[in-house]
Amino acid sequence: MKIAVENEDKGFLPDGRHLVEITGIEEGTSEHQNVPFFAARMESADGFVSQRFYNSPAGHPIILSLYAAVGIQPHDGKDLDTKELVGKHLSVEVSDHSYTDPATGNERSIRQATGFRAA
Q1: How far is CA 48 from CA 18, 22, 29, 41, in A?
Q2: How far is Cα 112 from Cα 15, in angstroms, rounded to an integer?
Q3: pLDDT, position 5
Q4: What backbone phi and psi angles, to 5 degrees, belong to 8?
Q5: Bridge partners, 60 (sequence order)
Q6: Is 71 left (phi over 0), alpha (psi -120 to 50) or beta?
Q7: Taking the mean position of all CA atoms in its chain, how far away is CA 36?
Q8: With 0-12 CB in 10 A as exposed, 13-18 as middle and 19+ as buried, what is 49?
Q9: Which one of 17, 56, 77, 111 has the largest count of C-beta atoms within 10 Å of its C-beta?
Q10: What confidence tens digit (pLDDT) does each residue in 30-88 have?
Q11: Segment Disordered: which positions (predicted)?
Q12: pLDDT tens digits for 98-117?
């Protein structure tokens, strides 16, 4: 018997602008300040990036720019549903971001997606 083996683990997207599809959404709470967030997994044939979006006053403009890039317009009095993002395509800028971890004081780096644009 032959068993097909597929490596579905992609590496991180390299630096630069990429056309991606949002393939999954996970929800959670930040480790330091307990701020709710959702993480969008964005993929292309070249790799993936997972980006957190914090549900806070400072995070709302970034969330709205993501929704605008995928063609979903918010309406007053109507909640946005993160499940609507799955399967949507957009263009993102991928790079590393360094910051000081508030819990340890150590510098950390994460891979991030910014500059959301329509695909």
Answers
A1: 10, 10, 22, 7
A2: 10
A3: 58
A4: -95, -5
A5: none
A6: left
A7: 14
A8: buried
A9: 111
A10: 988 899 999 999 999 999 999 999 999 999 999 999 999 999 998 888 999 999 999 99
A11: 96-119
A12: 988 877 889 999 999 999 99
Distance of CA 52 to the CA centre of its chain: 5
33-38 contacts: CB < 8 A, separation 24 or more? 35/59, 38/82
Q: What are the start-end ranges of the E strands in the chain?
A: 16-29, 36-44, 47-54, 89-100, 107-118
For residues 105 and 1, which has the higher predicted lDDT (pLDDT)? 105
| Residue type at 30 in one-letter notation | S
Q: What is the pLDDT of residue 105?
A: 87
List the one residue out of 44, 11, 42, 31 whose CA is nearest residue 116: 42
**Backbone phi, psi, residue 68, to 5°:** -65, -40
Query: Among residues 20, 50, 21, which one has the least CA distance to residue 38?
Result: 50
- Structural tokens at position 68: 């605008």
User: How many residues would you count in the chain?
Assistant: 119
Instruction: Report whether 21 contacts 57 (CB < 8 A).
Output: no
